[in-house]
Amino acid sequence: MRFLIVAATLAITACGPSTEARSIPEYGYEVIHTYHHDPMAFTQGLFYLDGFLYEGTGLEEQSSIRKVKLETGEVLEKRDVPGQYFGEGIINWKDRLLELTWTTHVGFIYDLLSFTPKSQFEYPGEGWGLTQDGKRIIMSDGTPELRFWDPETLKELGRVRVTADGEPVKDLNELEWVKGEVYANVWQTDRIARINPANGKVVGWIDLTNILSPADRTEETDVLNGIAYDAKGDRLFVTGKRWPKLFEIKLVKRTAE
Does the pLDDT at position 25 exceed 60? Predict the structure, then answer.
């Protein structure tokens, strides 16, 4: 979620017991296409809409919301977030774009077309990721829970606890709605959890280890974070914080050893 921490504990943080990864289907990836991504964008939120990527970036004094041309990575529209806020997940609802902030309990609502600020709202706890299923907004807060909101009132409708083989999965970060499932980056790992929103159970793990090559990494490169889905084109995109590339990928199911 926030800043890069030594990765020695990744597998433990993401997966819990060592048997877990073997009992839940595992998916690798095939890279279909590689796109340019702003290497200074500390990606916190990402979604695809009508041919463009929308991206929310983080860090105090550096947070922004952006409209990005997929094919080139060109930033077509950008609005900086007030410097005291650490921008987090973003999502669209009708003609609005909603954005969370990390620890300040404040969210912002913008006009989707112009990024003009319209209003703000408050919520308890931390703000991490956002997505929507066409009926509800879905939020992550760093805990094993996903929250469901009414998209018009932003009132909480309920929560579900995310588990894998009965064990809670914490550090759920950037979210994306994909074919009836919630895909969630697990902070500090190269893994994405595929979550059944009805019961919170992880129904698949996506392992993106080494998708960004060592040659593309610098001291500024941070963790995997950012999932976007083009429902019409059935295209899945992933990137990371301060990554120079964004990838269109195809999932490849792994066979049991």
Answer: yes
Distances (CA, A) of 205 to 19, 60, 86, 152, 224: 13, 32, 28, 32, 14
Amino acid at 76: L
Q: How far apart are CA 93 and CA 135, in angstroms?
A: 10
Domains: count for the chain: 1
Tell whether 3 is covered by a domain. no
In a domain, 6, yes or no: no
Q: Is residue 122 part of a domain?
A: yes
Q: What is the pLDDT of residues 139-160, one digit of tens each?
A: 999 999 999 999 999 999 999 9
What's 218's domain CATH number?
Answer: 2.120.10.30
Decide if pLDDT at 11 tops 90: no
How distant is the alpha carbon of residue 180 from its chain centre? 16
For residues 14 and 104, which has the higher predicted lDDT (pLDDT)?
Answer: 104
Task: Tell me if 136 is assigned to some domain.
Answer: yes
Q: Is the pLDDT of residue 239 over 90?
A: yes
d(CA 78, CA 62): 12
